């Protein structure tokens, strides 16, 4: 059996900067998952709103994955099982209708989760859920509902990790390089949080014949 290397991005909140990032991704042949809060997005474009409009979602995110992020980006640590289910179900159902395919992925708002949260998401039909805990590893997730990313795009180790991943030989299992963040962070203009930085990341990781560039769900559907 031949093992493979997989690379994916995950970005939160459905903000307007996603559009510019998607242009970069498409240029380099990369794929990402975008985690949206249905209850916080305006129905139509609004210059005063930080989020993209629901009417724009299908066109802007075409070729990428839409996933859930909580109806209104809640603190799950303050909620019980029933409250969590009442939050995630309408986000999942409305985004599924909007996307035209099952949006059964998730990213935990604020990175908060517990055994109760995991149980609620599983019972609501969520297949995987991303945390914010960097592993600096390419090991496959043991529990998809507590999927720890390799790193945030703004961590200085990212270029070392890129080199390690490009040179890695998956002889014992598949490998996954998973990068997460928020696209509005690129507006900071700092060394590891700028549009120049993320374009460099995309340029360095892209175009490798032995790497599969996937959305989060494409990885789990492999």
Task: Give an overview of the whole structure.
The protein is an alpha/beta fold. The chain is 32% helix and 16% strand. It has seven helices and eight strands, in the order E-H-E-H-E-H-E-H-E-E-H-E-H-E-H. It has helices spanning 17-28, 57-60, 81-99, 115-124, 158-167, 195-205, 216-220; strands at 5-12, 32-36, 65-68, 105-107, 128-130, 151-152, 175-181, 211-213. Strands 1, 2, 3, 6, 7 and 8 form a six-stranded parallel β-sheet that branches. Strand 4, helix 4 and strand 5 (128-130) form a beta-alpha-beta unit. Helix 1 (17-28) packs parallel to helix 6 (195-205). The chain starts with a strand and ends with a helix. The mean pLDDT is 97.
**SSE succession:** EHEHEHEHEEHEHEH
Average residue pLDDT = 97
Q: Work out the radius of gyration.
A: 17 Å
The best one-word shape is globular
- Count of strand segments: 8
Distance between the termini: 14 Å
Q: Show unreliable segments.
A: none
Structural class estimated from helices and strands: alpha/beta
Number of helices: 7
> How much strand?
15-25%
Largest sheet: 6 strands, parallel
- Name the helicity range: 25-40%
